[in-house]
Amino acid sequence: MERMQQIVGRARAAFNSGRSRPLEFRMQQLKALERMVQEKEKEILAALKADLNKSGPNAYSHEILGVLRELALTMEKLPSWAAPHPVKKDLLTMRDEVYIGYEPLGVVLVIGAWNYPFVLVMQPLIGAIAAGNAVVVKPSEVSENTARLVAELLPQYLDKDLYAMVTGGVPETTELLTQRFDHILYTGNSAVGKIVMAAAAKHLTPVTLELGGKSPCYIDKDCDLAVACRRITWGKYMNCGQTCIAPDYILCDPSIQSKVVENIKATLKEFYGEDVKSSPDYERIVNQRHFKRVKSLLEGQKIAHGGETDEASCFIAPTILTDVSPESKVMEEEIFGPVLPIVSVKSVEEAIEFINFREKPLALYVFSNNKQLIRRVIAETSSGGTTANDVIMHSVVPDLPFGGVGHSGMGAYHGRFSFEIFSHRRACLIKDLRWEVVNKLRYPPGSMEMMHL
Amino acid sequence: NPYAGLVSHLRASWLSGKTRPMEYRVAQLEALGRFLDDKKQEILEATELDMGKPSFEAFFSEILLCKNELNVTLNNLSQWMKDEHVDKNLVMQLDSAFIRKDPYGVVLIIAPWNYPIHLFLVPLIGAIAAGNCAIIKPSEISKNTERLVAETLSCYLDSDCFAVVTGGVPETTRLLENKFDYIFFTGAPPVGRIIMTAAAKHLTPVTLELGGKNPCYVSDTCDVTNVARRVAWGRFFNAGQTCIAPDYLLCTIEMQEKLMPALREAITEFFGPNPRESPDFGRIITDKQFQRLRALLGSGRVAIGGQTDEAERYIAPTVLADVLPSDPAMQEEIFGPILPIVVISNMDEAIDFINARPRPLALYAFSCDSKIVNQVLERTSSGGFCGNDTLMHVTLSSLPFGGIGNSGLGKYHGKFTFNTFSHHRGCLHRNMGLETLNTPRYPPYTQQKLGLITTTFEVKRRGTCTLL
Known about the structure:
Chain A: Keywords: Coiled coil, Endoplasmic reticulum, Fatty acid metabolism, Lipid metabolism, Membrane, Microsome, NAD, Oxidoreductase, Phosphoprotein, Transmembrane, Transmembrane helix. Chain A: This is Aldehyde dehydrogenase family 3 member A2. The structure holds 2 protein chains of 2 kinds. By secondary structure, chain A is an alpha/beta fold. Chain A has 2 domains: 1-211 and 409-429, Aldehyde Dehydrogenase, Chain A, domain 1 (3-Layer(aba) Sandwich); 216-396, Aldehyde Dehydrogenase, Chain A, domain 2. Chain A contains 16 helices and 18 strands. In chain A, the strands form 4 sheets. In chain A, strands 10-13-14-9-8-15-16 form a 7-stranded mixed beta sheet, sandwiched between helices. In chain A, strand 8, helix 9 and strand 9 (249-252) form a beta-alpha-beta unit. Chain A is globular, with a radius of gyration of 25 Å. By secondary structure, chain B is an alpha/beta fold. Strand 18 of chain A pairs parallel with strand 16 of chain B.
């Protein structure tokens, strides 16, 4: 489709004009984005409600607050991030200027996901703008209301040529990926991640892939179960389980399994009341396809709590499965729904082995009063990120990089890390044309005596 | 899959955790140092056989620079390995937030022939320092060095964790079928694409150190003698077979005229009246490369050099004048001892010329006027930049070395190599107490709770007032 070529071509021409480079311009665009979020808060919340049945306060704290915070942080720090970084010199370069310059890459492609549809396009966009790039944004078509809103709003607030919106599904994205970009940040699943990276390889385009997987949650016998289960319940069932860093499944000793179930049940009542379906704070599965997918994971499982579904409204009740077999379907793929399997392990060694046998997850959780045990679990496993004694929270610390490893992704962003992945760190050495005498050491004719100097 | 056994053996070693302790990594790194010391003579001999590498050059690039990287790494390893603690907000004051440097696992390092020891060893230093296992695939084209590495490296490194694989394209293709946790490739852009495509199948992150045509702009205001020496040195080092060599010169016709005698003099100073007899001038690696380069001599006119000897694969240090953008010498990375001069009328034209082409690995600008050097720097894009000299920016391990666009992705040297081969894992270790502080985030959601969250999680711009 020529349309994609034109859009990307326009962004590239706009980038080549140089106007996105001055810091003042970037700040101006970031300020405009901030205005957009503040002025259109109602519309953004309405779109999130329509797409995922997210309640106002929930949507605000999960999506809008994060974006405003990222904007404030970026605008605050941009001058120091963008300044050249002098580096350590050696004897031969003592008189020279030696530093790392931060430069924009060019035209960046941001592909968003549907589960946190606003923040997952905005946060990368903020970093890309801050680093001085032109950006093409492709929100997920699955969260269609947010996609439509963002497509309408961005051109109203930002430079239209530098920052372009592309909407559409698989055919449009495939076409878009044939164009040359200078960095692609994709949030989504591993299967599509491979396709994005293969397309990027044709142009030698660096990629940041924020993927997913099954994030394990190990609960040690020695821990405050009530607190642990409350925190886990919060992270698991928020957004109806459709969170890339949700605790996917629990690993614990069989002797505490029933206590875990009891605690989670109690917390669920506390959070959503007796009738979850009528709680304004409980979301829905995004569409029929995912509803069917998650529902099918319940087949043949021991349902300790929940299990109710309603296809018409894509409702799946918060569900707990016990004595789950590691070979069952629910343990094969990322659940991305409000279903929490509990798998028994008899020791922390077994838990570690279980985790390491599988693909590296995006997040890893461990609950214990024993600091040594926590340190051990972290040291003997690998994951994108980790939170001990809580879930999700490592992703909101602004100075921690957020990204996956192995199957859960490559590269990281958030805050300063966004600025860095969207920048080229250019090594600069500026010498003087005089002082040739120092150089004579390295010129031929060479001799072994010279070498020992 | 002929390499599946080897890869799974390394992976088993990796899972055993033996590469993790600092002592282990230090021991392996020190063994690499001993390899360089013990095998110094063999390395000089092998690279001389492979491409007539002058011993001075071989010592400098294959031994000295490698030992520098080793020492920087050994001196700083404990610091680099430490968890990096980060700032926390109000609610997390009792928690611990830090970045861990986790090894990736089993990494693959593919090296080219032009600096055959350096270009596998320096990445390997970082891979080991970061706690990984590694497979090294040296270039089959520099076959004497390949044999040396294959036969002797295993005597120094732990063979459970480090292996050398030899072979050509078919072997490398089979090797790439396996899953690696990181792939580090140095070589040509078309092969870089193949590597990245293969890596995509396993979602393996990559660093690609590629190449291109590195422009060298010489302004009218400059010390011609020094420029000529620095450019000649960078161009003719390793008989031009250097990814960061100045590939072509851009200057005015007046400067071309002034430079020519200065270049001639520098070449004579370096290599004597007959460079063929100088022990300090190298040879072309293969017949195929020799023929490719010889064909480029028809571009422009030969102003200096131009002599060749097929039997020796010798091409004299050559300068081509009045080369046109459409000439063969301007269509591909030269990678040989030939320096084309393309005449332009002014700096703006030079910058436009550079920007119309793929972004190079290195970019050079020479001028006595620092404003000119800075203009060229600011208005172009390249992997790295050196003003008023060539090659030297890569000898400083505190500077990142890597390309952009067609010239590559990722970077290394010094700490950057360690970072390349480690996964930076964001970790938050929270307190199990103080659960009341978490209440605002739990359903049922209320505006009041939201207000509390906003206050505690917000980052305020400096200068805006806050109630807290």
